Amino acid sequence: MKRRTVALLVAISLASVVARAENAPGKAPQKEPAHAAPNLNFGVEVVVLQATNREGGIDPRIGHMPELGKPPFSAFKTYTLLERVRLPLALGAPRTFVLPNGRSLRTILIDALPNDTVRFSASIDRPDGKVFLPLLEVKAKVGQSFVVAGQRHDGGTLVLVIRVVS
Amino acid sequence: MPPRDRILMEYFDGELSSGATDDVRRLLEPGDERLLAEWTQIGDVVRAIAEPGDGESCDVAGRLMEKIHAEVAPDRPVTHALYLGRFPWRRIARAFAPLAAFGAAAAVALTALSMRPDSAPANRAGRASSEPDIARVASVLRPASPPSASANDDELSQSGAAIEQLDLGAAEGVLFVVATDHDEMPVVWLSEGSASL
């Protein structure tokens, strides 16, 4: 056996011994991360409601939303579901949705956090491209929601319910 | 709820008989008087939120801000820049939770105006000067009843989304929290008063 071959075999053997020692039962296992890896498959569901004081009640398509029975939402007699869309949340990739009043809602993922939590921003632009709502930065878990309300539309008020989904 | 608080609430709501009302009035202590005064303030704010105007569209934000301006800072404008990361609005929301017990919604109102989109860091740096205004708003809106001992910060952190930063630009609006039995939902109510398409 040539000297070079012997050296190679010795090196492989040493590597094997070192690898076995790394996996030995007495060896402390490597620390697991404190939290599960963040889920990167997030999105937001935008439920667009129109609130008016016309007769009509709460549109059954809206589903269970007890907040509508609380002030100040209870000040309106009628809630109509106008649209329901899902926008994926991606780092560095803003998603835009045109609202019924012609303005655009833009969302972008800022950070995917452990425990199904995200930090994302939302903003609203006017049709001419100027900003109406420059920045709303939210931290929320999947299933949690917030509301942006007050824009006028067709004799009523738009209520945007924005919920994080996975 | 302690019997004393329940009786005080019934007294506040005018639900007691005239004899009982007289008895309670006679037995009121200084702490009770403060509590009643703060309930009155909270009731005014909630009514300002809840009562619609004559028009189809209800300018909640406008009326609420008028109310805050009138009650809180007649000599100074209310908060112009609001960075919510350090503001304890969750604590205030929790403090409002007892209101649900007597039929009112939990609501915290703050106002925010005029942060240029490209100058957020400057406004963040300048928020220290705004905080006294925020504190003044909060002091008016904070009910006297302490939060429930069972409600801790961990529970609160699980109970709703958190708005960490808000820039309303040239628009006006209010931020408040609507609480139900199981959830707290932050609401940004924009005012269209000075904004149009």
Task: Give a short summary of the structure.
The complex is a heterodimer of chains A (166) and B (197). Chain A is mostly beta strands and 166 residues long.
Could you characterize what this model shows?
The complex is a heterodimer of chains A (166) and B (197). By secondary structure, chain A is mainly beta. Chain A contains 1 helix and 8 strands. Chain A has one helix spanning 3-22, and strands at residues 42-52, 78-89, 95-98, 104-113, 117-125, 131-141, 145-153, 156-165. In chain A, the strands form 2 sheets. Chain A has a 4-stranded antiparallel β-sheet, with no helix packed on it. In chain A, strands 3-4-5-6 form a 4-stranded antiparallel β-sheet, with no helix packed on it. In chain A, a hairpin with a 3-residue loop joins strand 4 and strand 5. In chain A, 33% of the residues are buried. Residues 5-35 of chain A have low confidence and may be disordered. Chain B has 197 residues and is α+β, with helices and mostly antiparallel strands. Chain B has 8 helices and 4 strands. Chain B has helices at residues 3-12, 18-27, 30-50, 60-71, 89-96, 120-125, 127-141, 153-157, and strands at 110-113, 162-167, 172-179, 184-191. A 3-stranded antiparallel β-sheet of chain B has the order 1-3-4. Chain B is elongated and about 55 Å long. In chain B, 38% of the residues are buried. Chains A and B meet through strand 6, strand 7 and strand 8 of A and helix 3, strand 2, strand 3 and strand 4 of B.
